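[Discussion] Sanity-checking designs against the backbone

I'm trying to build intuition for which residues belong where. Below is a structure token string of 338 positions. I'd appreciate it if someone posts a full sequence so I can compare it with mine line by line.
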């Protein structure tokens, strides 16, 4: 594959067939109740971003069971209304673990349990898949890989910045080998982390994903390897090198319309040769902005994008309108049951 540094002058991309996409990056948010195994720290609950999301989605933190039900109901309704997306991978969020592999509640700000995600996906199989989260620092990490695989998990999501582990640590080799054995893709956050509290931002460097790639894991780098600091995309050379080196390396396009990742979205237009390695994702419930389309797409298309309120459809329309191709998660993981 030739990776050409050019602006694509090819004809517009073909329309996406009706409801064919699987969104590989959708967050299943939940407030803790007695039977869901979730957790949110008081500090996180009071954070401006979390309070804004509660307000935007009309969720009452004083009525957590109703809030959780409303969040899921709204998510499923938006999925049903989408013209492009038929399923979403619902993501869990594991906590922080100490050197002995025990969960460190004091350092954990947000936790969405694997069981909650697995149960939700089982309850809505026509619309959802389970994206579990396993911090490789936990002492039962390998066992949890096998347990979740048996329960039907579609991928494993990690966020090293907030979960406080280094993906390149060779102590996690057995964890990665278990993922490869089970053919479970690893979806890893890349770049700075703003939504949760990132302790060590250096572990968001995609170069630290060499170990799982070398062990044969299908790795999906979130946010197309965007650094997340607006004007400087320091990980672009690594991104292009990994595309050229590892056939098991992919990246999702989630959150790329946000202002802090907009530069990477526009840079992708120069590299049409890598679009076959891009997977559709939104980072729901975050917003999808149309700023990138202004002055770069025909006025009629821009107007349609602005009028598109469905976040799944707007993400697809903005990226395709800019000439950025992408594939569906189901196209690359070799499972016929999706």
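Best answer:
Here's mine. Compare freely.
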């Amino acid at each position: 594959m030739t990776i050409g540094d050019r602006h694509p002058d090819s004809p517009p991309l073909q329309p996406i067939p009706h409801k064919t996409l699987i969104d590989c990056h959708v967050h299943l948010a939940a407030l803790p109740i007695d039977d869901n195994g979730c957790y949110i720290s008081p500090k996180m609950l009071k954070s401006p971003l979390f309070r804004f999301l509660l307000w935007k989605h009309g969720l009452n933190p004083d009525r957590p069971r109703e809030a959780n039900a409303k969040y899921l109901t709204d998510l499923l309704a938006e999925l049903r209304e989408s013209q492009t997306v038929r399923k979403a991978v619902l993501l869990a969020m594991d906590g922080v673990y100490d050197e002995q592999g025990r969960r460190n509640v004091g350092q954990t700000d947000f936790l969405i349990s694997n069981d909650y995600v697995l149960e939700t996906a089982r309850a809505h199989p026509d619309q959802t898949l389970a994206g579990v989260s396993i911090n490789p620092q936990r002492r039962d990490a390998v066992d949890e890989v096998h347990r979740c695989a048996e329960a039907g998990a579609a991928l494993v999501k990690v966020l090293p910045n907030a979960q406080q582990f280094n993906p390149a640590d060779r102590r996690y080799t057995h964890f990665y080998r278990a993922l490869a054995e089970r053919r479970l893709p690893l979806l890893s956050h890349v770049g700075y982390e703003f939504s949760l509290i990132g302790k060590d931002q250096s572990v968001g460097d995609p170069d630290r994903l060499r170990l799982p790639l070398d062990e044969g894991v299908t790795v999906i780098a979130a946010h197309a390897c965007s650094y997340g600091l607006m004007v400087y995309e320091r990980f672009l050379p690594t991104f292009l090198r990994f595309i050229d080196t590892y056939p098991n390396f992919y990246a999702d396009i989630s959150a790329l319309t946000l202002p802090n990742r907009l530069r990477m979205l526009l840079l992708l237009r120069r590299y049409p040769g890598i679009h076959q390695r891009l997977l559709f994702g939104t980072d729901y419930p975050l917003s999808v902005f149309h700023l990138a389309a202004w002055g770069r797409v025909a006025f009629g298309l821009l107007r349609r994008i602005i009028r598109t309120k469905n976040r799944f459809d707007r993400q697809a329309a903005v990226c395709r309108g800019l000439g950025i191709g992408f594939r569906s998660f189901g196209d690359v993981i070799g499972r016929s049951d999706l």
